[in-house]
Write a structure and sequence with these properties.
alpha+beta; 8 helices
């Protein structure tokens, strides 16, 4: 069934120890936080789960309505992380609004509680006057024919390996559209938590994403989570830098990527 989500897995204890970095460091460092310091807490259906570290970040799930309501703060994080030309931001906002309407849209957001000794990195990233700062977000959706990215990648994979390869990876896929962390909070393992949390409840066969075809921190992160290259040097229409399209079998198996050109196996 398209866009499946297993509510039992969403409510179950997420395996944070497999993904969380050994410690968190900041400008006001707290004592080292081990992965066991994260305490998964099942919440309501609207908020499937949250994790909290004393004075530390909190991972939340935003439904479609909340995601759209917080677009200003999310785009602030995107802008700080990607440094796009200002004239591109209205188009980026429209894309994110459209993505939120796609099948089985899902988003997770990392927030940092504000306090007298922990001012937000960017005041614009406050969420509607709430006492926290959005420092990172990730979202995706079930991939289907007719979506721009999905159709381009399907065509490229078909050209590389034929219909069977494209269908194996894209026939039942969750597509990770955006993953961004504010620069002031990068290097703390936030992305390594957000991506698995985003795909953890999904029942699609595979997860796919694209990232710059360089030896970047993001590329190394995805490889460490079990993603491998399906396409390299690929240029999306209207973009200059080459991209790598990466895929992984779900559930993620950190450090154990499938063969790039082969068929994923459960």
């Amino acid at each position: 069934m398209a866009g499946r989500l297993d509510s039992r897995r969403a409510a179950a204890s997420f395996p944070w120890a497999d993904f969380w970095e050994p410690q968190v460091r900041g400008s006001n460092p707290a004592p080292a936080v081990t992965c066991n310091g994260w305490q998964p807490t099942p919440l309501s259906n609207a908020l499937a789960y949250a994790t909290r570290v004393r004075s530390g970040p909190e991972l939340l799930e935003f439904g479609k309505a909340r995601f759209l309501a917080e677009l200003d703060a999310l785009i602030d994080v995107y802008t700080a992380a990607m440094h796009p030309p200002q004239q591109q931001l209205p188009g980026r906002r429209s894309i994110m609004e459209r993505h939120a309407q796609f099948p089985s849209f899902r988003s997770v957001v990392m927030t940092q509680q504000d306090g007298p000794t922990r001012a937000p990195a960017d005041p614009r990233a406050r969420s509607g006057g709430r006492p926290y700062t959005i420092v990172g977000f990730a979202y995706g959706f079930h991939g289907t024919d007719g979506q721009w990215w999905h159709d381009l990648v399907r065509r490229a994979l078909t050209n590389v390996g034929g219909y069977d390869l494209a269908q194996t990876w894209l026939g039942d896929s969750f597509e990770v559209a955006e993953v961004h962390v504010h620069p002031d909070y990068q290097g703390r393992g936030i992305g390594r938590v957000m991506v698995p949390a985003l795909v953890y409840p999904r029942l699609e066969r595979t997860a796919l994403l694209s990232t710059a075809d360089t030896d970047s921190r993001a590329r190394r992160l995805y490889r460490g989570l079990g993603f491998s290259d399906l396409l390299t040097g690929y240029r999306f229409p209207g973009t200059d830098p080459p991209y790598a399209v990466m895929g992984a079998v779900l559930p993620l198996r950190p450090g154990s990527a499938p063969t790039a050109r082969g068929n994923p196996a459960r």
